[in-house]
Design goal:
Elements: H1 4-26, H2 28-44, E1 54-59, H3 61-67, H4 73-84, E2 91-94, H5 104-116, E3 120-126, E4 133-134, H6 138-143, E5 146-149, E6 160-162, E7 164-167, E8 170-173, H7 175-183, E9 190-191, E10 196-198, E11 201-203, E12 212-214, E13 226-228, H8 229-234, E14 246-251, E15 260-261, E16 271-272, H9 273-286, E17 291-292, H10 295-315, H11 318-341, E18 344-345, H12 349-411, H13 417-448, E19 457-460, H14 461-478, E20 482-485, E21 492-495, H15 497-513, E22 520-528, E23 531-537, H16 545-550, H17 559-564, H18 572-582, E24 586-592, E25 596-604
Parallel strand pairs: 1-13, 1-14, 2-3, 2-14, 3-5, 17-18, 20-22
Antiparallel strand pairs: 3-4, 6-12, 7-8, 9-10, 10-11, 15-16, 19-21, 22-23, 23-25, 24-25
Helix pairs in contact: 1-10, 1-12, 4-5, 7-9, 10-11, 10-12, 11-12, 12-13, 13-18, 14-15, 15-18
This protein binds adenosine-5'-diphosphate.
Length: about 625
């Protein structure tokens, strides 16, 4: 599989595999697979996480039950904040949207609790129609130090947070970021196209996609501590779990929390929004950022994977190719993992799909090429067998003659002198003929295999033509065919005289063989530019265009020739063509059925006497 055409086809097959892999990876199932692969890598490659800086104060089922249910939420929240104060939290994030006015007494108590909390940050959310924020009541906002959004895109699995969200003309930072700012006393967040800066913290969240940031959840074995508000009431010692922490207060009760989502760790189970927001804070606080690799990187790596697979199957075959292909495949799987462990997130499906599809395409291509090669080899073998068959057949005639004659001589030692001479001459002629046949056949085989150099002698074309015509004349006369040779003072040619003679003589005998009696064969030569054209024109059975295309194939014989009983082995012309090609020439054939044929040898002529062209 080494020629250009095949190379082009191979490259196109691989290019198609690459395009298909990209399309598959960008499709919806591809995105889903990428998400699953991300979660899997997330669970597999857990960095050691420092002690948590946050804790969740949970309004859980028990808290709601003992506190009077959802209707008493403001009171429950106020009581929890009041108790929390003794734990001296670093900051408090309230993951509840306090947008509607409640009972005055309740609201007042909550306002007071917020005011006396250390650095309280409130939540706002996008209104269901979008376009505007559902903000906390002004009285609560005044009591707090900031407001952050808790909007999450409606993905089933929460993998990233939008640090920055705009509704109408109003934009908000995410609750966790706003809480971080409050906890660290950072006056404002600086923005650059590729990062956000909150005091000394640089967050790799570019300004595309609402400054999305991948959340580094804490592993389940070392989670963010969660303290139930009811338990805190029952057991004041619980407050030690909250001491000095940034406390996220929110609803975790399954019956009341709307904002529950899956996380890479949770599997099908869902996690309360308040815990997700605390996880965002942890991500920021520990600077454990996962950065999506630039889109171009995945594309370039996938392309490399395709090229490597392609090269493996192009240069190698069999097991070596498969082993190399498998190595590339393995690398394509390992690459996203290796990058992930270096906190770079690469599309999993892009290199992996590219590797699988290109390996399939390359292996398939190779398989078919190998199969074609096998078929071709099988064809050659069959042809070779046929060749042997024909050679044996051809040899049999002279051999039988020799055998018969020699037996005759043995059996009748007193044969008349005349007869003995005749038989001896026959044996001599037939063995010479056999010798010639073998020599030409072997020479041409060796020439074709590149094992033999062509003899380079300079000789006159015309005398060679004359000799051959004289030899063929005897054959022609039996069919009363006239052979006309136009006189010609031709140029010299350079090459192997014996092979050239074989080629020309073959055309002559064909012309005689495939012509009916009482016709004419014309032989003439013309000089045309640097070439010499030697033509043999007959008035014989001719061939159609399809047959003319085939006659140089070994063992091919036309139906017409076979029916005439004149057809030989079908090797002659293939040998003629090889000889002429080796001399840097070509053969032209004009023919039509019943109208005769004209075979022309076009060979390079010498420029001047004695000098090779
Ligand atoms: P062979 O003559 O031994 O069969 P060749 O290779 O010389 O083998 O020729 C192949 C076939 O081409 C012949 O069998 C015949 O069908 C056809 N052919 C060759 N020369 C002529 C011709 N001058 N006129 C018609 N058919 C020809």
């Amino acid at each position: 599989m080494r020629d250009w055409k095949q190379g082009g086809l191979y490259a196109s097959v691989l290019a198609a595999a690459f395009v298909l892999a990209m399309a598959a990876s960008w499709s919806e199932p591809g995105a889903l697979a990428d998400g699953n692969a991300y979660d899997w890598m997330f669970r597999l490659l857990r960095p050691s996480s420092p002690a948590p800086q946050t804790a969740v104060l949970a309004i859980d089922e028990e808290t709601l039950q003992t506190g009077g249910g959802v209707r008493r939420m403001r009171t429950i929240l106020a009581a929890a904040l009041e108790r929390l104060r003794a734990a001296e939290p670093r900051a408090v994030a309230v993951d509840l949207v306090l947008a509607d006015p409640g009972e005055e007494e309740e609201d007042q108590r909550l306002e007071d609790a917020l005011r006396s909390s250390a650095r309280a940050v409130l939540a706002c959310d996008l209104l269901p129609q979008g376009g505007a924020w559902e903000d906390p009541l002004p009285r609560f906002r005044r009591a707090a130090v900031g407001t952050g959004h808790v909007h999450a895109e409606p993905d089933p699995v929460s993998r990233e947070v939008l640090l920055h969200k705009v509704a109408g003309r109003d934009r908000r930072w995410a609750l966790a970021l706003e809480t971080y700012r409050a906890a660290h006393g950072v006056p404002w967040i600086e923005e650059t196209p590729h990062e956000l800066r909150a005091g000394p913290l640089t967050i790799p969240a570019g300004n595309r996609q609402d400054r999305a940031l991948l959340i580094r959840y804490r592993p389940p074995e070392d989670p963010i501590p969660v303290v139930s508000a009811a338990a805190l009431q029952r057991d004041p010692k619980q407050r030690e779990l909250l001491r000095g922490k940034v406390v996220f207060v929110g609803v975790t009760a399954i019956s009341a929390a709307k904002d529950r989502l899956q996380t890479p760790y949770s599997g099908r189970a869902q996690v309360a929004g308040v815990e997700i927001n605390a996880s965002v804070y942890e991500t920021l606080a520990h600077g454990l950022f996962l950065k999506p690799a630039p889109g171009g990187v995945a594309l370039a790596l996938s392309l490399t994977v395709v090229v490597l697979t392609g090269v493996s199957f192009w240069w190698f075959s069999g097991w070596t190719a498969y082993v190399l292909g498998a190595a590339v495949l393995l690398a394509a799987h390992a690459l996203p993992l290796a990058l992930f462990s270096a906190s770079q997130v690469l599309s999993f499906t892009m290199p992996v799909f590219s590797a699988w599809l290109s390996a399939g395409a390359a292996a398939g291509f190779q398989y078919f090429v190998v199969r074609r090669g096998l078929l071709r080899a099988e064809g050659e073998r069959q042809r070779y067998q046929q060749a042997m068959h024909f050679v044996v057949h051809e040899m049999r005639t002279p051999l039988t003659a020799i055998q018969g004659s020699s037996e005759l001589m043995g059996r009748y030692p007193n044969l008349p002198e005349e007869k003995r001479k005749q038989i001896a001459a026959l044996i001599n002629n037939e063995s010479k003929r056999m010798g010639r046949m073998i020599r030409v056949f072997l020479d041409v085989e060796r020439l074709g295999a590149g094992q033999m150099e062509l003899k380079r002698e300079v000789f006159e074309a015309y005398p060679l033509m004359e000799t051959c015509v004289e030899r063929a004349r005897a054959l022609a006369e039996r069919k009363r065919i006239r052979v006309e040779l136009e006189p010609f003072a031709g140029p010299q040619v350079s090459g192997d005289r014996e092979l050239m003679e074989y080629a020309f003589y073959n055309l002559l005998t064909n012309a005689v063989k495939y012509s009916p009696a009482d016709t004419e064969v014309r032989v003439y030569a013309r000089r045309q530019g640097e070439s010499l054209r030697i033509s043999v024109r007959d008035q014989g059975m001719g061939m159609d265009a399809r047959e003319v295309k085939e006659i140089f194939r070994r063992f091919y014989r036309t139906k017409r020739a076979e029916e005439s009983g004149e057809a030989g082995t079908g090797i002659g012309l293939s040998i003629v063509q090889q000889i002429v090609t080796q001399h840097g020439g070509t053969i032209e054939v004009e023919s039509s059925p019943g109208q005769g044929s004209c075979f022309t040898l076009v060979i390079p002529a010498c420029r001047e006497a004695g000098a090779p062209a």
